[in-house]
Amino acid sequence: MSLILKLIAGILGGILVGFYFPMGLVELLYTAKVIVGQLINFTIPLIILFFIASGIAGLPQGSGHLLGKTVGFAYGSTIVAGTLAVLLVNAFIPFFDGAIGYEAVSGTEVKSYIDLEIAPLMGVMTALATAFIFGIGISQLNLVKLKEVVDQGRDVIDALLAKVIIPALPIYIAGVFAEMAVAGTVADTLSTFGIVLLAAIVMHWLWLSLLYIGSGILLKRSPLELIKNMLPAYFTAIGTMSSAATIPVSLQASKANGVKEEVANFSVPLCATIHLSGSTITIVTCAMAVMLLSPSMAVPSLVQMLPFVLMLGIVMIAAPGAPGGAVMSALGLLTSMLGFNEAAVALMIALYLAQDSFGTACNVTGDGVIALWVNRFSQRA
Predict the structure, then answer these.
(1) Which of 232, 230, 296 is nearest to 259 (CA)?
(2) C-alpha angle 56/287/354, rounded to 5°?
(3) How far is Cα 321 from Cα 54, in angstroms, rounded to an integer?
(4) What are phi and psi of 204, to 5 degrees?
(5) Are 110 and 28 in contact (CB under 8 A)?
């Protein structure tokens, strides 16, 4: 929760600086934002490359019947969740269209003291293709030494996120809100934050309700009993903000729902990495809200958003266990496929981190459903 408090402090601090401090101090804060933003842009392809390659290379072998079903159910759940989020957001857009905006039409321009550009080593799609080629190759050829390389590369980027980028995000967001305060658009932006966050959390609950009611009907079990057994995992995830840290509780909850031990021990830890339906709902909802906030960006239809959702389900494999990892992994798609600029990226990060614990809780609780499905359809179950 300390990250959320720091995020709020960054927003409030940026607004105060933008409204009441001299322009020189505003531009100093904006310069810090530019530096952090360049570091984020440089890191995005490395996140995708090392985390996806390491994740694919580390998929367990010798359990093909469980692996295929777990991956298939997890990806399908993520895609359906993201698609439903697009449909719901589009249904409510007419109520807000034209009422908000964060881009200034006119006003004082804030400039950085440093003209800095750190070019990424590769593009997002190049990183994604490279990760799949090496990840699959390492797994199929059992290349132990190369797996150590991608694992250690993942550890380096994970440390960079945990020790540098995530702690610097409040400063980055403060710079963005200071710029908006100077431009006179901060009030409209803040008025929308609460609505978007509430909408994301409500959609989490709707999605979990659909999953557990459907599973109850399929398995001829009480949905209330199934969800009751998973509640410890839900609340643990809210506190830890980490799917990985919640695995022991998730395992116990899944076994309480009748999932066989060998199935639970395989599917629950794997789903903690590859099944992020809650995070996908949040990213889709927040992304479309940010596009609605921007007068220069059109909110896309389902047909236009579907490729983004399909790619998001894959890129979520790269989400590290650190708080905010999912949105950091998705930034490459947001910039390359949806055309997000720096201000849109900052708003996206702020919105996502404000509800990160609830998105993680939805992910973890959904993992219990995947385990139930794998248990039901596994040939060896």
Answers:
(1) 230
(2) 85
(3) 13
(4) -55, -50
(5) no
Q: Nearest Cα to 308, choosing from 273, 278, 340?
A: 340
| Confidence bin at 1 (pLDDT 50/70/90) | very low
Cα of 180 vs its chain's centroid, Å: 24
> Coil, helix or strand for 353?
helix
What residue type is assigned to position 176 of the chain? V
Q: What is the DSSP string of 307-342?
A: HHHHHHHHHGGG--SSTTHHHHHHHHHHHHTS---H
Start-to-end Cα distance in the chain:
39
Per-residue model confidence as pLDDT tens digits over 157-190? 888 887 888 888 888 888 878 877 776 666 666 7
Q: HEC states along 236-294?
A: HHHHHCCCCCCHHHHHHHHHHCCCCHHHHHHHHHHHHHHCCHHHHHHHHHHHHHHHHHC
Query: Count of residues for the chain?
Result: 381
Give the pair of three-digit tokens for residue 220.
Answer: 């001829």
Pair 211, 369: CB distance under 8 Å? yes
DSSP state at residue 296 = T
Continuous H helices in 58-185: 64-92, 124-141, 144-160, 166-183
Yes or no: say if 274 and 75 are a contact pair by the CB < 8 Å rule: yes
Amino acid identity for residue 132 in this structure: F
CB of 166 closer than 8 Å to CB of 329: no
Name the token pair of 106: 């006119």
pTM (2 d.p.) = 0.77
Hey, how many other C-beta atoms are within 10 angstroms of the C-beta on 176?
A: 28
20 phi, psi to nearest 5 deg = -120, -10
Residues 6+ apart with CB under 8 A from 205: none
State both tokens at 188.
């409209």
Helix (H) or strand (E) holding 208, with range, is helix 186-219
